[in-house]
Beta-glucuronidase
Amino acid sequence: MQGQAWPSMWLLFGLLLVLAVTGHGENNEHDGMELHPVFLHENWTAPIATTGLLYPRESETREVRSLDGMWRLLMSQPNDPLQGIREKWYENSLQKTGQEIIPMPVPASYNDITTDNNLRDHVGTVWYERTFFVPRYWIEKRRTWLRFGSVHYAAVVWINGRNAMRHSIGHLPFEAEITNLLNFGGENRITVMCNNRLTNRTVPQGQVSTVKTDNGETPIQSYTFDFFNYAGIHRSVHLYTTPVVHISDIAISTQLSSDQVGRIDYRIWLDGTTEDSTVQPTHVLVQLRDRDGVVAAQQFNRAVYNGTLLVPGPKLWWPYLMHPDPGYLYSLEFELFMSRNDGDDGKELLDAYRLPVGIRTLSWTTTSLLLNEKPLYLRGFGRHEDSDIRGKGLDNALLARDINLIKWVGANAYRTSHYPYSEESMQFADEHGIMVIDECSAVNIDLFEPELLSNHMSALEQLIHRDRNHASVIAWSVANEPRSFKMGALGYFQALVNYTRSIAHGRPLTAAINASPDPPKQCHLAPFLDIVGFNRYNAWYQNSGRTDMIVNLLTEEAQRWHQNFGKPVILFEYGADTMEGLHSLPAYIWSEDYQVALFSQHFKAFDKLRKQKWFIGEFVWNFADFKTAQTYTRVGGNKKGVFTRARQPKEVAHILRWRYFALAKELDRVPVPKHLNVYISSQTGQAHIEL
């Protein structure tokens, strides 16, 4: 959503007051909420549609500058989050406040950068600031925009002391035009107030309460989700220019005909056009170029901003290990022209934008998910954007390492648990052929009421708008482990799914459910989904240590999910916390040996279920160890990773690699990497263990 300047600072105070409220304690009183009229289709209003927000890309008509680097940070007093508003810190440099200023890298979570536990555990507002220079020539026939990839959880932005934009719901981008706020040819100051407080009506939810400490009263944040509530400017900040009249948004969809002709349906939106404007677009040139720059299809339209490109014999986008050339992307190029009034037949280029696109089909039935008409079997991970020191901050080195590990282990998919991942992560998935279950930040949803529903819808709308053009996205996940067994969930999720399906852009809807397929705690979300996904920790949270109970329990439950709801089924989470280097014979919980034994039994269950044809995927929890809130049940965080937090393999990573490549060989006839076949002895009848 493009940022919107506020007509009054009272709205700012309103936002802060909403974010500053403590939890309301309304956890279980709302059973039966499905009767609330807001959940009736005719009585709820869809969120305001997001506009713009194309990823910043340079072209003949656009410049992009990064504002990443070292910023200055000021931490508000926990008991006085409004101090900076009262004292108008945004009007001058933060250094003039007399408060302690901390150098802070952007992008990064602020929590683990210093050695101060007060900043690590801070609840409330922090203030960021930096200066930047804008060249004088940018004022000529241009518009200047400021774009944030993500600030968690809520942000208000000022340029040179003047309000520019605000946004809530972390993990998603926002932007605003700031042309009229800038000093061209001079220095400018950007100030950002970030608030990390979560309430019963934010997405995700949390509660703030006040506790007495040895140093007085202080607010503390509590939440039920099992990952650390990192905060700050988590993704890149860009300054970019566009022409006055420019392409503001693009939507595409792709198909393949029976005679192998690819089809790309496109639509573009323009910004800056008015009836009395001297700049009036007259033509649009649309070209599709392959990797070698050769034009594969094109159209030249006169004042028509939607159309279809036909591509004979296209190179399709295929997932990793399903094709020798996975992740094939074309460049879809849009050029906006205006006819000259000088008597020539010439045209002036107004704007140009290039969008990477993959051509593929996606469909689903009551038993299958198909890509390019081929049934998929998903093998992958739940993940987290999490690393030492940086927290949830974008780290391109870590991103590259993660993609390499995903491919090394033979996975073909992951779920963005439990929030939208960075745009750079989505681009990597497109390029490498990794399929993505794209999940919004609604984790452990409870307290089903109208304001939460509105925020939940908005989170999904912004996610889908951002990621709708990515070939890698094969499904939208509307929630993770919601309290969907409560009666209040029925009407809530019916309204949510009805709305989301109306904007789903050709993808099925799913969720990661931890309720039951059967009464009395039967899931009220599953009936509305296209694919049923569930999380189950047999031999860990249930029946700890009993790996001999996994196969029967898992196969029987998966069968009930399919029988009760008639949908394809995925296991989205299974696993065991494992301390790297801890071994026990016989296997004992928390040891690497136990993790191997637990995985092995799950593999047996999966192979039984695969024969049923409606079981379409297995996802490990988790890709790598990650940080959580401090609790006696966690030793340094959640240790269910196949890899350590430093991205080094535990013993089970090698077992999982054998599993995933064996599946690739069976299902897609993929040659197994030679080094995966282990040499044992020249004295044995079989000198190698081979897949």
